[in-house]
Predict the 3D structure of the following.
Amino acid sequence: MKVAFGALVIAAGVCGILSFAFLATSLGTDHWYIIEVSTVNMTDFEDMSSHSGLWRINEGGKMQADSIDSFAADSSKYTETELRMLSMHGAIVVMLPLSLVLLLFGGICGLVSSLARSPVLLTGTAYYFFVCSLLTLCGASLYIFYSYQALSETESLVGPEGLAYIHTSFGWSLGLAWLSYGLELLSGTLLLIAAQKAKLRQRGPTKA
């Protein structure tokens, strides 16, 4: 089944817009990591249940704005392990917002290249989206690694019994980041196919 050039670029545009919206929502919400405390020992852990984002933590129903700041931290107050964790967090909060900004410019490039029907511009925009997807992939993957490292460090400090009534999980904000990654890949792939169609269309009249 042949797919028209217009349908390809429109589908790529929709995917690009959705990927931007999902990533923006992901970065602006605070459900990346969720800590739930069992009701068995609720008297001891009354306010420990929390959910956190990249910059804020909501603990016990109280929002702690700017509670996560990797760049303003005084390195002399932290151990080597804690400094490594802060470095990972700093990398995450650089890569993901950078991917978001690049997606915005990618949308502009995609619109221009689609209107021009230029195979070169369409191919370049497709690879541009692949770069965005790589940044999103690295940021989301690093966050997962960072979270497991933080949990491991906490367990080494308090012991397994200290975490017996605590359940941790990743939230829907991280899921939106992964959805954005998939849509960025799909958008780039559709633009590559559109570039091939534009190239064949340019060669058609020449052969005739």
Summary: The chain is about 65% helix and 10% strand. The longest strand covers residues 33-37. The CA atoms of residues 30 and 52 lie 5 Å apart. The mean pLDDT is 84.
